[in-house]
Amino acid sequence: MDNGRFNKYGMVIAFSPAMRGDLTKMSTLKELSEVCEKEIGEKHYENCEGAKMVVECVARNGKAYGIEFPHPKNM
C-alpha cells in the first residue's frame, strides 16, 4: 500500500521474505501482484482495509500461482 492505494511493488517487497529467496516464486509473486492490482484497483482505502484486500487477493488467487500460506489451524 502506498498512501492508501495498492502498490504492486510494495506487495512484492512485503511478501518476499515468505519466498525465502526462491527466484521462481519471486517471479510468480510479481505476476500475482499484477492480478491483485487489477482486482483491487486504484481506490483509496482507509486504515487496514487495503491490507485486508491484499491478503484476500493472495488467498483467493495464490494457489493458481503456486503460492499458498497454510492456515495456522491446519499446521
From TrEMBL:
Q: Which Gene3D superfamilies match?
A: Pheromone/general odorant binding protein domain
A molecular function annotated in GO for this UniProt entry is:
odorant binding
The record's section on InterPro entries has: PBP_GOBP_sf
**Which superkingdom?**
Eukaryota
Q: By what name is this protein known?
A: Uncharacterized protein
Q: Which organism is it from?
A: Rhamnusium bicolor
Q: What is the lineage of its organism?
A: Eukaryota, Metazoa, Ecdysozoa, Arthropoda, Hexapoda
